């Protein structure tokens, strides 16, 4: 009796093991298991919102248009204060691990703006310009050390340069030296 029970337990164990291996092999096959059904519960991975994917930063070609044409993606220049001025590119994205979707989990996403942010805050720079602009603190803050020293030595161009810089900041004509955009988080 004990031998029969042991036999059935072993047969059941091996049966489950073989079934598990077959299912695992079927799941790892590279063949398309099913056709995509648009009315089904899964959406194409490339249509996932940005909260469910992780994208690389845009490639910076540093003004080299030929390199952008050869690769087919990347940014020649970063920044721009108007929507029309901002260059757009495609970047390589990967779906986050526990998100279910249909299709390849790594893909190119188009229309990513070529924008980079640094430690330049508009409100802080405007306050520097109003309060300490005579000493060139706004220009130092933007990384324009040459004109900042000139503004410091001439005491804000006897006040004229100081007023002009406040107007240039408000009209968004005075930008950070490194070409980055204003950081939106104050």
Going across the major beta sheet, what is the strand order? 1-2-3
> How would you characterize the largest beta sheet?
3 strands, antiparallel
Percentage beta strand: 5-15%
Task: Give unreliable regions as ranges.
Answer: 21-32
Structural class: alpha+beta
Number of strands: 3
Query: Taking Cα atoms only, what radius of gyration do you get, to the nearest Å?
Result: 29 Å
Global mean pLDDT = 80
N-C termini distance: 78 Å
Helix content class: 25-40%
Helix and strand pattern? HEHEEHHHHH
What is the count of helical runs?
7
Q: What characteristic shape results from the CA principal axes?
A: elongated
Structure description:
This protein starts with a helix and ends in a 16-residue tail after the last helix. The model is unreliable at 21-32 (pLDDT under 50). It has helices at residues 2-27, 65-71, 122-132, 137-142, 145-153, 155-158, 160-170; strands at 53-55, 88-95, 106-113. Helix 3 packs antiparallel against helix 7 (160-170). The chain contains 7 helices and 3 strands. It is of the alpha+beta class and 186 residues long. Among the domains are: 43-111, no CATH class; 120-169, no CATH class. It is 40% helix and 10% strand. The chain is elongated, with a radius of gyration of 29 Å. It holds the Pfam family TM2. Keywords: Glycoprotein, Membrane, Signal, Transmembrane, Transmembrane helix. It is found in: Membrane. Belongs to the TM2 family.
């Amino acid at each position: 009796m004990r031998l029969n029970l042991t036999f059935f337990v072993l047969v059941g164990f091996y049966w489950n093991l073989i079934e598990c291996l077959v299912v695992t092999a079927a799941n790892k096959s590279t063949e398309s298991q099913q056709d995509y059904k648009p009315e089904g519960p899964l959406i194409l991975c490339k249509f996932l919102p940005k909260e469910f994917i992780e994208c690389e930063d845009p490639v910076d070609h540093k003004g080299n248009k030929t390199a952008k044409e050869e690769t087919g993606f990347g940014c020649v220049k970063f920044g721009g204060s108007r929507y029309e001025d901002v260059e757009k590119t495609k970047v390589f994205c990967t779906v986050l691990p526990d998100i279910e979707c249909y299709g390849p989990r790594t893909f190119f996403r188009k229309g990513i703006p070529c924008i980079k942010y640094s430690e330049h805050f508009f409100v802080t720079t405007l306050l520097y310009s109003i309060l300490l602009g005579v000493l060139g603190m706004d220009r130092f803050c933007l990384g324009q050390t040459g004109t900042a020293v000139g503004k410091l030595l001439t005491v804000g161009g006897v006040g004229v340069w100081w007023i002009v810089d406040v107007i240039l900041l408000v009209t968004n004509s005075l930008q950070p030296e490194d070409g980055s955009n204003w950081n939106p988080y104050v």
